[in-house]
Amino acid sequence: MTDRRRVWVTGGGSGVGAAVALDLAGAGHDVVVSGRRAERLDEVVTAAKGLAGSVRALTLDVADPAAVAAAGQELAASGGVDVLVAAAGLNVVRRHWDDLDLPGLDAVVATDLTAVAHCIAAVLPGMRGRRDGQVVVVSSRAAVRRSPGAGAAYSAAKAGTGQLVTSLNDDLHAEGVRATHLCPGDIATDFIDARPQVPDADARAVMLTPADVARAIGFVVASPPSVRVDELVLSPSATA
């Protein structure tokens, strides 16, 4: 394993994904950011200029299994992926059972759970072949602690990602693959604008920031091969 690693960050055009991409590029890694909005990806690429590592963009909807498989082949052909950071996420406004958006539920599960499995599957052959690889799934504190505001689909999908990570570690620990279930609490990003009641400035001021989460992921990625961080929960210190 070399110090300079090849990283794929999904959901890399904004929020946590963008912060992670810039943090890891700053640490000297070569990062591919993917997302649906090419213009947002280009902004991250521009922001990374002059850093020790590099960032390049790959426009992709992770909810499209065929596109994910093609992206995996493209990344393998250009050297492979040492670290996957699955940061793409979705939630909907109508998230509770008194007014649940069932097509929205399907979309949330497709993005927050099924797509994570497809992205992992796309990079696993290379990781197993090199007997080295890390997967960091950006989940939610809602996966491990009662969080009524998160809604039915989001809570279920994020809990499911915890089981994906556990099964990955169970099945492939002997092949050098390590996976982390990262569970942050509230983060002050545009993502929370999808809540039925949008938090005000005072509420956002005590939330985690994308940089907080990026630092935690940087710690995980920098851990030696002898260390596996199975699960890491981050909470804003000013909240319960």
Q: How large is the share of residues in beta strands?
A: 15-25%
Give me the count of strands: 7
Largest sheet: 7 strands, parallel
Distance between the termini: 40 Å
- Strand sequence of the main sheet, in spatial order? 3-2-1-4-5-6-7
Task: Write the element-wise H/E pattern from the N-terminal end onward.
Answer: EHEHEHEHEHEHHE
Query: Which regions are unreliable across 5 or more consecutive residues at pLDDT < 50?
Result: none
What report would you give on this structure?
The model has no long low-confidence stretch (mean pLDDT 96). Strand 5, helix 5 and strand 6 form a beta-alpha-beta unit. The chain has helices at residues 15-26, 38-47, 65-77, 102-130, 152-172, 201-205, 210-222; strands spanning 6-10, 30-35, 54-59, 83-86, 133-138, 177-184, 231-234. With 240 residues, it is α/β, with parallel strands linked by helices. Strands 3-2-1-4-5-6-7 form a seven-stranded parallel β-sheet, with helices on both faces. The chain is 43% helix and 16% strand. It has a single domain (6-234), classed as 3-Layer(aba) Sandwich (Rossmann fold), CATH 3.40.50.720. It is built from seven helices and seven strands; from the N terminus they run E-H-E-H-E-H-E-H-E-H-E-H-H-E. Helix 1 (15-26) packs across helix 7, helix 3 runs parallel beside helix 4 and helix 4 runs parallel beside helix 5.
